[in-house]
Amino acid sequence: MSDAPDVAGTPLADEIAPRPVLRHDVLQRGRIIDLVRDEVDLGDAGVVTREYVQHPGAVAIVALDEQERVLLERQYRHPVRSFMWEVPAGLLDVDGEPAVDAAARELAEEAAVTAERWAVLADYATTPGSSDEAVRIFLARGIAPVAETDRHVRTGEEAGMELRWVPLDEAVARALDGSLHNPSTVVGILAAAASRAGGWSSLRPTDAPWPARPRA
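^ thats the sequence. predicted structure below, dont judge the formating
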């Protein structure tokens, strides 16, 4: 039995509960993200200063084909100086765009496939101690290729990107043995396996509430 105290009446769910911000400064504006500093009133705990990255948020897609293979992309990520196997993903950088529409757009542009059926698989905060970035992971089924004439021209790190369909069970094993490190990939793969084990009953509709989405 655990010796940890049990806080009666506290739901086992994250709670959006902003504390008063006494001062907000933008330290550096970036093309996509900003570095900011807040003075935050924590009540009895006093006033603290926190620096963090403001981020528009993102979506990621676990695309599964009829053989229950997940689509992975091999992409260079400069901050970690690594080629990483990832699920398709993209920024929520179009004002007012529904998250599922952004996911469909990214899937078509990055992987040149579309999906007939969409559902919310998982939501998470990437680095809540240093960024407000929130990611929604979708499950996409009913996969079909985009016509050759309609395919997006990839540039930058996406140019020449290798795509691979990997059995979900193999992807789970690679996530657990430390071969895969991209957070959306690890979270998405494990969430898909857990949802499949429960008969996909955990899936949520594409417009499920997402109060953590930044700048919504």
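Helices lie at 99-111, 168-176, 183-197.
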